[in-house]
Design a protein that fits this description.
The protein has about 90 residues and is mainly β. It has no helices and 8 strands. It starts with 12 loop residues before the first strand and ends with a strand.
Amino acid sequence: MVFFNNHKPFSLKKNKTSEEEKVLAFKREKDGAKLIFIANMSKKNINFNIQLDGIFKNYFSGETFTISKEKDMKLEAWEYLILINK
């Protein structure tokens, strides 16, 4: 599973966003599994876009979540998402 590394080295790849100073976004891949972490690191709601396309599953809710480079995302203050590939 992509969440655990069993003491093996792993890398994180930062995803670029239109709000680099306020949004932290990175991706981890291992054995075909993907994990995407996106967080609003500010005390204000924010609209932004991310350089990523795909259909994912929200790790917490199980709901489908679509990301497109062409469409803005919105996160509430301090909100974060953990997404995995479907």
